[in-house]
């Protein structure tokens, strides 16, 4: 064997070794135990689970088709290092599917629009607003609260959650605030993108919390601190903090992590709370001309109501070990009639999901279609995808 042959053989071996190293580092196996296809569910792969030091050079591809998946890295604690790698597999019913974890250069990464977006909005007092390709929401900050307390027009005193009714897949937050800055109230008017005509006031809106003491519900004021954690093609998430507040004789300490994933109509609320063993997440009843329904076994409560020239469904969904029951609370006091989901607090934390489906967006044309979505969503959170790793 001559030197040229040896050189070529060594080169081929090096290339093969490099390709092997680049391609199949680890195999991710995902199992769907439910009797329907799973699509817009986010799988979180931590550094510890993957046993890697750096997530930024990793990508995921379908083992069968070789198709790269859209991924997003998240720095949960703000220390400058990414903690989780996110992606949304598509898995048929009662099926196991395999993906490969590979190394990849920045140029080779699959590009995707950042449809999951949130930000603090100082130009509109101090809202915090978030959206994905289906829905949008906002909550109100301390400046808006002080304006009300000081009788300054334009403020909002509420810890309720506002719904922004969008009917396009692309982001609308910045466009709507830009329109509003040029002409106050512009986003309240109908447009091809939708509009903000959802009244919150002091109600719970879509998922704000209350604590029931005897027959009375107690609520906090506006958030006092905020921090954006991530935006991207798969998830946006952020942190809110509230001043300690009173619920009867209880001192309540509250903060929360809110996230919204691609393709979901419900935001995830992870509420950290001290001073109570239960909370009640609420849905405003507006004119009380809709229908409250619920399913204690599935862990959801819904309110389907007429809304302008259309209809809208609101809902709270919680894991089965968290959901206690639900209640329709009617009162003559303005904005304080709500449908409530009563939820257990576990180790000073409670997780639930809240959101809406607007008929005019074309997603849910009947209340039954909305209920079907909630039943599926409940099954998904109570029977999560099983994820395993094979080296």
What does this structure look like?
The chain is 15% helix and 42% strand. It is built from five helices and 26 strands.
Q: In CATH's first tier, which class of the largest domain applies?
A: Mainly Beta
Tally of individual domains:
2
Judged by helices, strands and strand pairing, the structural class is: mainly beta
- Averaged pLDDT, please? 93
**How much beta, percentage-wise?**
35-45%
InterPro entries: DUF4861 (IPR032342)
Protein name: DUF4861 domain-containing protein
Pfam family, one: DUF4861
Topology:
Layout: H1 3-22, E1 26-32, E2 43-46, H2 47-50, E3 58-62, E4 71-74, E5 84-87, E6 95-103, E7 117-121, E8 127-131, E9 136-140, H3 142-149, E10 162-166, H4 173-182, E11 194-195, E12 206-213, E13 216-218, E14 223-230, E15 235-242, E16 245-247, E17 250-261, E18 266-274, E19 278-284, E20 291-295, E21 300-307, E22 310-317, E23 323-329, E24 338-344, E25 349-358, H5 367-382, E26 386-390
Antiparallel strand pairs: 1-6, 1-26, 2-5, 3-6, 4-5, 7-8, 8-9, 9-10, 10-11, 12-13, 12-19, 14-15, 15-17, 16-17, 17-18, 18-25, 19-24, 20-21, 21-22, 22-25, 23-24
């Amino acid at each position: 064997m001559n030197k040229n042959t040896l050189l070529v053989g060594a080169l081929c071996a090096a290339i093969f070794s490099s390709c092997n190293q680049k391609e199949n580092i680890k195999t991710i196996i995902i199992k769907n135990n439910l009797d329907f296809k799973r699509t817009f569910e986010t799988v979180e792969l931590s550094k510890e689970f993957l046993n890697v030091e750096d997530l930024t050079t990793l990508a995921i591809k379908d083992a069968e088709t070789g198709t790269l998946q859209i991924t997003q890295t998240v720095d949960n604690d703000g220390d400058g290092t990414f903690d989780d790698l996110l992606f949304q597999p598509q898995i048929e019913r009662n099926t196991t599917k395999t993906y490969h974890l590979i190394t990849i250069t920045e140029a080779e990464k699959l590009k995707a629009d950042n449809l999951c977006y949130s930000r603090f909005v100082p130009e509109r007092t101090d809202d915090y607003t978030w959206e994905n390709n289906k829905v949008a929401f906002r909550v109100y900050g301390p400046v808006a609260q002080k304006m009300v307390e000081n009788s300054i027009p334009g403020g909002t005193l509420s810890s309720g959650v506002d719904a922004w009714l969008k009917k396009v897949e692309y982001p609308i937050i910045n466009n709507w605030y830009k329109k509003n800055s040029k002409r106050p109230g512009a986003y309240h008017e109908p447009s091809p993108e939708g509009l903000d005509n959802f009244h919150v006031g002091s109600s719970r809106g879509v998922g704000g919390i209350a604590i029931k003491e005897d027959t009375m519900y107690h609520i906090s004021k506006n958030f006092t601190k905020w921090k954006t954690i991530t935006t991207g093609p798969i998830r946006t998430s952020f942190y809110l903090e509230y001043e300690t507040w009173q619920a009867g004789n209880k001192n309540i300490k509250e903060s929360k992590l809110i996230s919204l994933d691609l393709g979901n109509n419900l935001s995830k609320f992870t509420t950290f709370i001290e001073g109570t063993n239960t909370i009640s997440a609420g849905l405003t009843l507006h004119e009380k001309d809709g229908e409250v329904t619920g399913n204690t076994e599935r862990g959801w409560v819904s309110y389907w109501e007429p809304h302008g020239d259309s209809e809208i469904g609101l809902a709270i969904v919680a894991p089965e070990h968290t959901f206690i029951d639900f209640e329709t609370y009617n009162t003559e006091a303005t904005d304080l009639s709500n449908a409530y989901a009563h939820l257990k607090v576990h180790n000073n934390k409670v997780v639930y999901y809240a959101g809406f489906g607007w008929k005019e967006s074309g997603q849910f044309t009947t209340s039954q279609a909305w209920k079907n979505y909630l039943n599926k969503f409940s099954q998904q959170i109570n029977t999560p995808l099983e994820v395993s790793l094979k080296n």
